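Per-record layout

source: Cyprinus carpio carpio
name: Si:cabz01036022.1
length: 342
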Amino acid sequence: RTGVSDTSSNVTCRGERESNGQKSEISGAVTLTVSQTPKARLTVQTETSQIFRGETVTLTCDVQGEGWRYTWQCGDKQQNSDEEEFKSTVQFKQSCKCKGCRESFCSEWSDAETLTDSYKPKVTVKPQSSVFTGDTVTLICDVGRSTGRTIYWYKNFKRTKAGSETETLREVRVSDGGRYVCSVERETTQSQGVMLTVEERPKPVVRVQPDGRVFRGQTVTLTCDIQDTNVTNWSYIWNKDDSEIHVSQSQEYRISSVSESHTGNYSCTGRETGGSRYSHTSDKVTLTVSESSEAHALITGVIAGLSVTFLLIFFLALLWCCKHNKGAGSPSFSTDHQPQNI
């Protein structure tokens, strides 16, 4: 066997018997080519120039040749795959590298690529992003760390204020609604936008059924009607004489067998179920409970009967007086004053 160079060499062989030293002919030459161990190359594909926490990046491992099975290592974790692409979700700063293996041979590890996560600012709205006029709203710009730098606030793509990470809007108006974003001083990355919706605070209307005179023992239904709002689920708060008496998911408040104690001024307020919004309080509606209809009819009948009796007595007395006066004023003729015949 001849020496082997760094690149390639010709190799031949022959046999020799130990017993008599007889040698065979030299074999034909075989060229042995020794290639340098390939080194994997790792590339990182991202949609933007910065990698933000929680984003998914695509890692590609490129090894010369075919038939490789790839080993990925990011931080302390290793994963094998037949695919040359590997997707990783970035949660913190970490170093990644790869290599390819086939049969018992492996390439060299690639150079490590460090994935440095950048924290993208995030805007949150408290108590919620849909509010009514007059509410107080707090905008919070979460930058993931304390920077000590100025926070810029934008509304509908126009910078509105330079301040701190918390921005409070008091007594909001409809015009305060819009798309809000924030950014950190000397950084180009803006947060995703958050829409703030401000609606006029609705005012309920209370309807009473029956809407006429209510008598003791009847059933009365009060309905709290709230219109012109995007709230889909309300809780209804009922008040009597400014004191809370009932809360339910139904807009109807039913009073069975009313009595005089139910007489009073009723109003309602809507509260968003699972939210923070309240409506105005409705105007008050007065509920007056009278005697029962039967008693009312009896009393009315008695009064009517007494009235008829009184009128009858009055007319009889008047008739008697007329007759008496007529009898007293009639002319009478005396015989003493009759004319004499001559």
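summary: The two ends are 211 Å apart (CA to CA). The mean pLDDT is 85.
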